[in-house]
Amino acid sequence: MKSKPFVLFAMLGAALVAAPAFAQPYIFPNNDQSAEQQATDRGSCESWAKQQTGYDPMMASSAPPSSSNSGGPNVVRGAARGAAAGAAMGAIAGDAGKGAAMGAAGGALFGGMRRQDQRRQQDAQRQNWEAQQQAARSQYMRAFGACMEGKGYTVK
Under the phi-then-psi rule, with left for phi > 0, alpha for psi from -120 to 50, and beta for the rest, what region is 139? Predict the structure, then answer.
């Protein structure tokens, strides 16, 4: 029963998409900085972290890029191609109808397998994208935290 892992990955992906871009850190002013100073320092550190990491959490997409090819027509295309090839071979053997039917069945089977392969590739691409986004967010938060700590704050 291979559908269980796919369902779990789909649920995990939906949870990640529904989650905020990243959790806001708790920032404590160790040197009694004013609210205005905190806002200035925060803006400065956000800018610095973007510059250091190349990641802007406000511009980050919350969903992976989607593939324009869903793979749905592969079964139909495969069946049509198989039917044409089967009819041609059947005509040579003397029964084009049986050849077309057998070709259509085989073509549909191969088209379905191609669609499964495309889905696996799309799932792998989505998982890779999610891992890259998580790594970029982590690097950004480390840079932001280092900057704020350098300005006299505790960041958790």
Answer: alpha
CA distance 39 to 5: 45
Give the predicted TM-score (pTM) of the model. Answer: 0.56
Give the C-alpha separation, 139 to 132, whole Å: 11
The conformational region for residue 71 under phi > 0 = left, psi -120 to 50 = alpha, else beta, is left
For the chain, the domain total comes to: 1
Three-state DSSP class for 65?
coil
Longest dimension (CA), the chain: 93
| Domain that includes residue 84, residue range | 28-60+71-155
Residues with Cβ within 8 Å of 123's Cβ and at least 6 positions away in sequence, in order, are 6, 9
Asked whether residue 40 is domain-assigned, the answer is yes
**Is-contact 104 89, C-beta < 8 A?**
no
Determine, yes or no, domain membership for 16: no
Q: Is residue 150 part of a domain?
A: yes
Question: For residue 45, which of 141, 112, 136 has the smallest C-alpha distance?
Answer: 141
Residues 107-155 have pLDDT tens digits of: 667 777 778 888 999 999 999 999 999 999 999 999 999 999 999 999 9
